[in-house]
Amino acid sequence: MIDLAIIGGGPAGLSAGLYATRGGIKDVVLFEKGAPGGQITGSSEIENYPGVKEIKSGLDFMEPWQEQCFRFGLKHNMSEVIRVEKLGSNFAIIHNSGKGEEAIESKSVIITTGGRPRKSNIKGEQEFWGRGVSTCATCDAFFYKKKEVAVLGGGDTAIEEAIYLTKFASKVHLIHRRDGFRAAPITVEHARNNPQINFLIPYTVEEICGDEKGVSSLKIKNLSTNEISTLEVPVIFEFVGYDVNNQILKQKDGSNLCDVNEFGSVKVNLKMHTNVKGLFAAGDIRVDAPKQVVCAAGDGAQAALEAIAYLESHK
């Protein structure tokens, strides 16, 4: 029996581990199959984390987090968690130990498994990922001040991020394969009223082109005429969906361990409580997550403080 299981080793999970162990929980285990660090380790540059003035790669940025968080007694279990089940007032962490499925019982759980932006699978996307292919306008808009940029997508996120990018870019080319948008009409209206946004509809991106320096242009196709043309931009921001890593919540009967929204994100209150007592969620797995490292870290700290209070009240 352990006191607290943290599932997921990104910024939210590591912060939760730090605050939980420093806060006095004796037996805290972080379940992360690989090396902790999370999705951010794939970023080429980070320069917007408060207090860190150097521009660092995601890998370099997360390296000291591990040392700091494990210093206070956080344990790392490198097995893959398959499912979390309710077990009376406690929880069963069903994991693959290498010898098959095994269960570890825990008094409380913090889910910090995050998510991942959906890829478009356009030719050149993988080659230029992080070098002119981005899924985070907040992270990367600053690098393209007074330049023309492209945005791919037709949902609320794509339209909202296109509007946000106009604060930096000289022009934003919004590319969508349909004439209509899934985004809220009022959001689309705001975009159409912004003279810096150029609507390219119905268009698709056929190829992302560039060289060793990164993206230089896009080959785009007009779906009405089938005409192929070149759009010279140094970056394409892709907003074609986001998949949360919520598989561990799925029970044997197909239900979820806790309440999720229509996109599969875990419903929590401002204190990271789910609707199941003793179960918390933090970071990109939760509803309305800003998908920023600093926010995920704050979520993890909040969840840990709540876990401490929960365990204290159930002694």
TrEMBL record:
It catalyses: [thioredoxin]-dithiol + NADP(+) = [thioredoxin]-disulfide + NADPH + H(+). Its EC number is 1.8.1.9. Residues 3-300 form the FAD/NAD(P)-binding domain. Binds 1 FAD per subunit. The keyword Transmembrane helix does not apply. The keyword S-adenosyl-L-methionine does not apply. Belongs to the class-II pyridine nucleotide-disulfide oxidoreductase family. This is Thioredoxin reductase. It comes from Helicobacter muridarum. The gene is trxB.
